[in-house]
Amino acid sequence: MSTPELTISTTDFDRLEKLLDSLPADAVGVDTLSKELDRANIVEPQELANNVVSMNSTVRFSWGNGKSSSLTLVYPKDIDKTGTTISVLAPVGSALLGLKTGDTINWPLPNGDMSTITIDEVLYQPEREGIFHR
């Protein structure tokens, strides 16, 4: 399986770069997110396709075992206790960023296992709603 293309808005890219710069290089998730940003296509927020997972998007995705989850991709400071958010620094968070509906990626889990993740639907995307500076 090939690695799907990533698309990230300039707003998200700039904020994520600042986040990475503020963290120790060996902090959990920093290296993985940095590598994802390095391979991403960067576009203006208004040009981001409606089916791409951006920061603060709510996405429904399926695991390789057939189970599905719906989570909102957030910055670490915005994690809540409801279990409906996931940090972009978490392994699955980094995997979701920049993918589009229908994309599938193989991704390492914290325990070392690999999981297949498929984007089923972007339920909410700020850019789709005209929210470009969040």
Protein described:
Residues 4-43 form the Regulator of nucleoside diphosphate kinase N-terminal domain. One of its GO terms (biological process) is regulation of DNA-templated transcription elongation. This protein has 134 residues and is α/β, with parallel strands linked by helices. The chain has a single domain (7-129), classed as Roll (Chitinase A, domain 3), CATH 3.10.50.30. Helices cover 21% and strands 28% of the residues. The protein has 3 helices and 7 strands. The protein has helices spanning 10-22, 30-38, 91-96, and strands spanning 7-9, 41-43, 58-63, 68-74, 85-87, 104-108, 114-124. It has a 5-stranded mixed beta sheet. A two-stranded parallel sheet has the order 1-2. Strand 3 and strand 4 (68-74) form a beta hairpin. Helix 1 runs antiparallel to helix 2. The longest helix is centred in the N-terminal third of the chain and has 13 residues, at 10-22. It starts with 6 loop residues before the first strand and ends in a 10-residue tail after the last strand. The model has no long low-confidence stretch (mean pLDDT 92).
